[in-house]
C-alpha cells in the first residue's frame, strides 16, 4: 500500500503527459493539413440580403482584370493563376458562391481601360487615387505595403521626392502616384512607360534616376545594378478590391466577405507568400508526429523517475510564481496609473500598428474607450478622419521599418477640427532586444510649456 501511495503521482504524470503528447501531435497534423489544402474544409456562407442574393443569381461569374505581379498574382509553371490575391479570391468564392474569371492585361493602363469601359467587373491590383475613384468603388483594405524608391546601385540612395528635382522619375502609365507627383513636384521629370519591368530597365541603363514600386515587389528583383532605397513617407500601397461603379451589390458582397475573413487565416496567407514559408507535405507530418510521440514517451519515462523530487519542488515553484505574478501585476498597475496621470495623450501599438495600451487622455481626445480600440489599427477605427488615420498608420509602418524616433510639430485633422500639435513616436524593444512596436503621443502646442 505504501508503494502504491508513492507511485500514484508518477502514474498520474505518465498518463497526463502521454495524453498531452498525443493531443499536440494531432493538433499539429490538423493545422498543417489545413494549410496544405484549405479548400477541403467546408466553409459557411456569409449572410446576404435579398438584393445581394438576386444579383448573385443573375451573374454567373465576375470578370477580374489582372496583371501579373509576382507573389500577389501571377501564372505558375502550369499556366494557372496563383499568389496571395488568388488565394484571397478563392476563399471569398467559398464564402459567397461568387465565381471569379481572370481577364489578363499587360499594363496598368490596359487594366484601367478594361475597368473604365466595363469590360471587367473588378480588380485586385489597384491602389486608390482620385482618378480611379471617379469610375471605381473600393472595398475595405485587407493589407498593403509601403512605396519604395528603386535607384541605380552606383547612385546615392533616394530618400525623398524632393531629392528627385530636375531628375527623371520613370513610372508605369497611370501609376497610382503619377498625378500627385506631377501636381506637387513639377520640378521632377516624370517619364511614362508601360510596365514596372520597363521602368526598372531604364533605371538600370541610367536613362532614368529612379522609379517607385511596392516594397514587396521591389525586393523580388535583386539586380546587381539596382538597389531599393527609402520608403516614400506618408504614402501606403494598400490592398483593395476595386469594383466598377454601378455594382453596389457586388461591392457589398465582397466587403462582407472581407469583414468575415478570419484574421488569423489572412495573416497565414500573407506569411505564406511574403515570408517564403514552404508548405509541409502530409507524409512528413505523420513522420514528425511519430517522432514526437516517441520522444514524448521517452520524456514521460524520465518524468516518472523524477516525479517524487518534482512533487517536492512543485510547491516551492508555485509559491515563487505567484509572488512573481503579484509583482508583475503591481508593476503593470503602476504603469497604467502613471500613464493615466499624464495630461497628454499617450499610446502604445505593436509592430502591426494595433493598439495595445493608451491612457485616459488618449481616450478623451478621441472620444472613445480603450476597450473599443484594443487590438485594432487606426485605419480600422472611426475615431479619426479616414485620411488622418491612413496617414498616421502609414507613418507608423515606415517608422517601424526605419526604427528611427520622430519628434515634430505639425497640423492634424481630428474629428473636432484642425489642431496644431507636437507629436512624438519612438520604437520600443523587449528585453531580448527585439523590436516590439511604437509608443508615442502628442501635445497641443498652445498647452505646451515654454522653454527657458
Automatic annotation (TrEMBL):
Keyword Cytoplasm annotated: no
Matching CDD domains: PAS, PBP2_BvgS_D2
Sequence ranges assigned to domain Solute-binding protein family 3/N-terminal in this UniProt record: 61-277
Stored InterPro entries: BvgS-like_periplasmic2, PAS, PAS-like_dom_sf, PAS_4, Solute-binding_3/MltF_N
Keywords assigned by UniProt, alphabetized: Kinase, Signal, Transferase
Extent of the signal sequence: 1-28
Keyword flag Protein biosynthesis: no
Domain (PAS) ranges: 333-401
Pfam families: PAS_4, SBP_bac_3
Gene Ontology MF terms: kinase activity
SMART domains from the UniProt entry: PAS, PBPb
Family: Belongs to the bacterial solute-binding protein 3 family.
Protein name as it appears in the record: Histidine kinase
